[in-house]
């Protein structure tokens, strides 16, 4: 179920730390806006690896979860060498899609961005396909923990 608040996190909340690289920034040392989606991807990848199953295993089973919708609300700028905390939660699971929400903050616990990504489930040919029953159950367990 979707909450009323677009960017709410639900338990379990996975935490991933990442250092801002020079290549993530513009000439002023500020993180380029599109790179926040890369930070979300890192958080989502580690969430899946730690709590469900790795993306490598998903792909070996012939599944891909491309982003079909996303939004980032920027609150403050991350800068070169900041240590970021990316908090990720799975907030919705359907037969052929799922949604993750994110909170990105810096080492001073300053909120930098809120985001979400919605993912379709497709097979190796790019055709929409339902989640396998076992994977659907494991994902739904994460959402029902909230």
Order of H and E elements: EHHEEEEEEH
Distance between the termini: 11 Å
Count of separate structural domains: 1
The proportion of strand residues reads 25-35%
Number of helices: 3
Q: Give the strand tally.
A: 7
Low-pLDDT stretches are: none
Name the strands of the widest sheet in spatial order: 1-4-5-6-3
Q: What is the level-2 CATH architecture name?
A: Roll
Kindly provide the name of the CATH class.
Alpha Beta
Relative helix content: 10-25%
CATH topological fold name: Thiol Ester Dehydrase, Chain A
Main pleated-sheet profile: 5 strands, antiparallel
From the spread of the alpha carbons, the general shape counts as: globular
Based on CA atoms alone, the radius of gyration comes out at 15 Å
| CATH superfamily caption | Hotdog Thioesterase
- Structural class of the helix and strand makeup? alpha+beta
List the helices and strands and how they pair.
Elements: E1 14-19, H1 35-51, H2 55-60, E2 63-64, E3 67-74, E4 83-93, E5 97-105, E6 111-120, E7 122-123, H3 133-144
Antiparallel strand pairs: 1-4, 2-7, 3-6, 4-5, 5-6
Q: How would you describe this protein?
A:
The protein is α+β, with helices and mostly antiparallel strands and 146 residues long. The protein has one domain: Roll (Thiol Ester Dehydrase, Chain A), CATH 3.10.129.10. It contains 3 helices and 7 strands. The chain has helices spanning 35-51, 55-60, 133-144; strands spanning 14-19, 63-64, 67-74, 83-93, 97-105, 111-120, 122-123. The strands form 2 sheets. It has a 5-stranded antiparallel sheet. It has a two-stranded antiparallel ribbon with strand order 2-7. A hairpin with a 3-residue loop joins strand 4 (83-93) and strand 5 (97-105). The radius of gyration is 15 Å and the shape is globular. The termini are close together. The mean pLDDT is 94.
């Amino acid at each position: 179920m979707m909450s009323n608040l677009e960017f709410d996190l639900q338990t379990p909340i996975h935490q991933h730390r990442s250092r801002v690289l020079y290549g993530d920034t513009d000439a002023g040392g500020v993180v380029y806006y599109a790179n926040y989606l890369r930070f979300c991807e890192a958080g989502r990848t580690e969430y899946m690896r730690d709590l469900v199953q790795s993306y490598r295993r998903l792909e070996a089973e012939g599944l891909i979860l491309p982003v079909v919708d996303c939004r980032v609300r920027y609150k403050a700028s991350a800068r070169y060498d900041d240590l970021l905390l990316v908090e990720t939660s799975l907030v919705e699971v359907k037969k052929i899609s799922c949604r993750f929400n994110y909170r990105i903050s810096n080492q001073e616990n300053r909120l930098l961005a809120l985001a979400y990504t919605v993912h379709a489930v497709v097979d190796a040919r790019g055709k929409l396909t339902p989640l396998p029953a076992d994977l659907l159950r494991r994902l739904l367990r994460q959402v029902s923990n909230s």
